[in-house]
Amino acid sequence: MKKVLSGLCLSLVLILVGCASGVKLNEVPVEDKSSSLVKADAVNALSGKSAVTSVQTSALGAMNMGPAGIEKVVYFDYDSYAIKPEAQATVESHAKFLSADKSRKVALEGHTDDRGGREYNLALGQKRSEAVKRSLTLLGVLDAQIEAVSLGKEIPAVSGSDEATYAKNRRVEFHYR
To answer: What's the domain range around 136?
Structure first.
């Protein structure tokens, strides 16, 4: 069943990429390797579930192990992809965990708050996940162990429209597989 869904998802991704709009992102590259939203849509078509439910119950969520007692989220300031100094210890702990076993892999999911357009937020989420990936590789983690993806504003951690809510949604999540 997973292979069938994977094939279906790949087909949908290729179709959607071919139908992509010509929106310019002002020199901000967008690279969404996960196609999680497309996967969610494919699952929706087959099961009738909502996109949020499908993504939250994905294999990534079920396999989210990692270093014990270490936060699996790095938070960012508004309109920024710079890793805050207080998040450095978290990134270093994940780097040690990944370096200890080169067969471990992690997906870094970049997220944004819901302000701004979809394309902008996908690009910013990608820049956030790529910033964490760059930090991990500088700390000795192999590039092949890390996948950096963006989900933009599509899957908020919390709902609301105040600064405390926005701050919780501006994040990169570590999902081990």
So the answer is: 2-176
Residue 78 sits in a domain of what CATH number? 3.30.1330.60
What is the spatial distance between Cα 17 and Cα 19, in angstroms, rounded to a whole number?
5
User: What is the Cα–Cα distance from 146 to 97, expressed in whole angstroms?
Assistant: 13
Cβ-contact 100, 87 below 8 angstroms: no
Report yes or no: 158 and 50 within 8 Å, Cβ to Cβ. no
Q: What is the pLDDT of residues 53-86, one digit of tens each?
A: 333 333 344 345 888 889 999 999 999 999 999 9
Tally of domains in the chain: 1
b/e string for 26-42 if b means 16 or more Cβ within 10 A? eeeebebebbbbbbbbb
- Identity of the residue numbered 113: D
